[in-house]
Specification:
Keywords: Signal. The chain has 99 residues and is of the alpha+beta class. The protein has three helices and five strands, in the order H-H-E-H-E-E-E-E. 36% of the residues lie in helices and 26% in strands. The longest helix has 19 residues.
């Protein structure tokens, strides 16, 4: 009986070790994006193409803050009608970026 309990414990322990250290593979793009610094800018400095794209795609949100990085990408902090905030990313032409 002891051997059965011991064998069961070893089997379950062996299974958990195999799943505990599962490596996460990624292409490094997110690391690069997160390192890029965005500096806050005035909302009036956001290009017309970006504000137009925002109004067209998300008419129910309000632009609260805007940020810009060295690659002419914009991080937009928007507030929805229910008070929740989210961040959207766009390039100078108003194309949405996934970050």
């Amino acid at each position: 009986m002891k051997k059965l309990v011991l064998a069961t414990a070893l089997a379950l322990g062996g299974l958990s070790l195999g799943t505990a250290a599962t490596p996460i593979f990624h292409d490094g793009i997110m690391d690069e994006v997160l390192v890029q610094d965005f500096t806050e800018i005035e909302i009036s400095e956001v290009p017309e193409a970006v504000t137009s794209a925002l109004a067209e795609a998300y008419p129910e949100v309000t632009l609260v803050k805007a940020y810009k990085n060295g690659e002419e990408q914009y991080k937009l902090e928007v507030s929805s009608e229910d008070g929740s905030t989210t961040e959207l990313f766009a390039d100078t032409e108003g194309n949405w970026l996934e970050m």
